[in-house]
Design brief:
This protein has a single domain, classed as Uncharacterized conserved protein DUF2267 (Globin-like), CATH 1.10.490.110. The chain is built from nine helices and no strands. It has helices at 3-11, 17-34, 37-44, 49-52, 67-78, 82-99, 103-107, 113-116, 118-123.
Length: 124
């Protein structure tokens, strides 16, 4: 298991690595629809191959959907309730922010403010 998935598992208090993997994949796939292909590529090179694949190819060329839709997509993809999706998405974003170099510059700033606040929800 890779270090990022293990960090997500521990921070989200998930019993199984596959639970952390499922939410990481759901967040990254949804994120790839929201950010530019260039930002997705910059993030992908910093991730393990199995996670980086969620950011390639294509992406959504920066589709503009907001927090509610972002969370709904993740909840559906990861088979979570919306409160679970909010918490776990915040954990994934926080771990990505800590474990990658360019998230803040190339990804973070493209997200709507309420989505960035998910990190604060996860930390609480």
């Amino acid at each position: 298991m890779n270090e990022i998935v293990e960090l997500i598992r521990r921070r989200a208090c998930l019993p199984e690595p596959r639970d952390a993997e499922r939410v990481a994949h759901a967040v990254l796939r949804t994120l790839s629809e929201r950010i530019s292909p260039e930002a997705a590529a910059s993030l992908a090179v910093q991730l393990p191959a199995e996670l980086a694949e969620d950011l390639r190819p294509g992406g959504g060329a920066g589709k503009r959907f907001e927090l509610e839709e972002f969370v709904e997509r993740i909840a559906r993809a990861a088979h979570l309730t919306e409160p679970e999706a909010v918490h776990r998405t915040g954990v994934v974003l926080d771990v990505l922010g800590r474990e990658t170099v360019q998230v803040a510059d190339e990804v973070w700033e493209t997200l709507p403010v309420p989505l960035r606040r998910l990190v604060g929800v996860a930390a609480a």
